[in-house]
Amino acid sequence: MLAIVGGRVVPIEAAPVNVGTVLVDNGRITAVGADVAVPAGAKVVDAAGAWVLPGLIDAHTHLGVYEEGDGWAGHDMNEMTDPNTAHVRAIDAINPADTGFRDAIASGVLAVNVQPGSGNPIGGLTVAVKCHGRTVDDMVLRQPSGLKSALGENPKRVYGDQHKMPMSRLGTAAVIREAFVKAENYLRGEDDPTRERDLRLEALARVLRKEIPWRQHSHRADDIATGLRIAAEFGYDLVIDHGTEAHLIADVIAARGVPVVIGPVMGSRAKVELRNVSLANPGILAAAGVEIAITTDHPFLPIQHLIHQVAFCVKEGLDRETALRSVTLTPARVLGIADRVGSLAPGKDADLCLWSGDPLDPMSRVEKAFVDGVEVFSR
């Protein structure tokens, strides 16, 4: 049994406790509060002066499939040989030895969603994992956690260069719609014992059954509107990824109840789709009633800057409570793992960090990190 005592405990789903205790047994949180009795024989961690928070969560990364410092050998996030690769799985390409996982833990990020890239209109199955483990199978929180799709410039460029469909936005939308029509037809034959398995259509069928969400890469407002339109046509659960111009149609997104995993919001305007990138975007969306999570899209913005983005967004108008939820409980809900992580509450996994001070203060840093109640990092 582990007892973390004396710190400022920020549970996320409840009010902060100025001098609190988090009690852990068998990798799960058993108690959180100001008047928690520490059982005899418990290992005590003195957190006096520290802030105790759940591990941060980044809902859109390429950790482990786009390894840093390995060049071509570590780039496994895009199977750009067919516009529809719904059947490929991020889990099959993750290298837990990617240095990005160590950077994540040291900066308080203890869980991430790993996505295929955005080279294809339909890119493949995503997976939610913890950032610590010897094999990816040890790390899995939810497999699959979604199906990646891309609108906009990336698939248009990739297949335009190959002089094949899709070479345009209308072609990209047609590829997606045609794939869903085939999946609908596939579902109609579920009771046919002679039907052959089709891994692409099985993946798409999981989206149509609402078992997993459709993760729609879209930066421009018109691409976001296309994502909303196709989702309405086929009736699946939608998550907008990036949403660089989402603030331009915030009311439309809010009315549909679609969450936005927004970011990165720090960086250059490296392509035309990013001309309206803004640190104010998350605050505008949240004020309009859109549920937001903030992402680094690692390695495009290194994972260790997740909390820095959040702090800068608060500076530009995002309220503090929503800001902390945007990298804890909200991404956990988007990923379907909120029963295990995202807040400090009895029954949840003991994935938490001790910070030297307010995590939104750029001078604060992670002093200790625990995954399943085991210390995996100490400064």
TrEMBL record:
Q: Which InterPro entries match?
A: Amidohydro-rel, Metal-dep_hydrolase_composite, Metal_Hydrolase, Metallo-dep_Hydrolase
- Give the top-rank taxon of the lineage listed in the UniProt record for this protein: Bacteria
Span of domain Amidohydrolase-related: 237-370
Alphabetized Pfam families for the sequence: Amidohydro_1 (PF01979)
Q: Which GO terms describe its molecular function?
A: hydrolase activity, acting on carbon-nitrogen (but not peptide) bonds
> Which PANTHER family does this chain map to?
ALPHA-D-RIBOSE 1-METHYLPHOSPHONATE 5-TRIPHOSPHATE DIPHOSPHATASE (PTHR43135)
Provide the protein name: Amidohydrolase
